[in-house]
Automatic annotation (TrEMBL):
The keyword Transmembrane applies. The chain crosses the membrane at residues 7-26, 111-130, 135-154, 166-186. It comes from Saccharolobus shibatae. Keywords: Membrane, Transmembrane, Transmembrane helix. InterPro entries: SpoIIM-like. Pfam families: SpoIIM. Coiled coil: none annotated. Signal peptide: none annotated. This is Putative integral membrane protein.
Amino acid sequence: MRVLTKIILIVFVFEVVLFLIASGIPQNNPSLVSAFNSTENQVLNQSYFGKVLMIFGNNVRVAFLDFIPAVGMIILAVSIYSTGAVLSAFSSSLNVPGILSALGLMTLPHSWLELPSYAVAASSGLYIVIRPREWVRGLLTLIIVPIELFLAALVESGEFYVSNPYILWLYSIPAFVFLYFLYEFLQKRADRYIKVKTPVTQQQNVIQIQQPTYADYITRYNQSWNTASYYETQGNLAEAMRYYWEAIFYLITAVGNKLGMPTLTKEDQDNVIKSVAYKVGNPQLYDIYNEAFKIRIENRLNDFQIFKEYLSQLTRYLNSI
């Protein structure tokens, strides 16, 4: 789930809970009741499309205020609490608990179009604060808000003209589906923009480090073996022994690379030799390797020919893999 989606869900739950709490607090405020009646009368005196434009204009103004980064969440909390308080006051004037009115309002289809739009607007602004480099996601997501509020206004205005407002759920469900796919479309557009802008910049600062391949190690093996042969012809057995062992190290590493086995430690190299010994059917290969290793560690130049013979056997079997 995207980070923005999680934020929207959290804000929406906060919004609904705050609305229910505010509605549940008894309010005996005649001025709030008067303001509610005045607004309701203005709406009732409009035609259907007049109602749509009036409801939409008021709601979209609130939503864009909710979008303001950093302060939008505060504006959302104040507006939702105020709405709940007005509903509580009006309900109290009719001797009806405000919480019941709020729950009844939440069963109407327009509520589930209108309330989420405020959460989307506030979350989009909050996302820009949290991830300023991905500001385009917050801005693109805001596009859905006026569309959602316009659909909500169409439904809410229609509720004044039907005997059973719940029948408008038949219209609202396709609207929800449309809004979902629109949201996903906008998020994918944001993903594409962010992938184009961010990774390219990061790639300019990344140094690509390529690990040596099997062929690379074989090349180093040949170079070291040839160097050892040169020192041997010059009579410098100490250097010859050093480069012969270096060559066998590169060969073991190459074979380990080919077999997908690590070769970082002596134990790793031992495991490679054991694996090769098993594959070629020569269990003495590991003993030969260890004897050569002892001669190298002890620098026994008197055993140079034995050392070289051991390495020759090792190379023959290692090269057969």
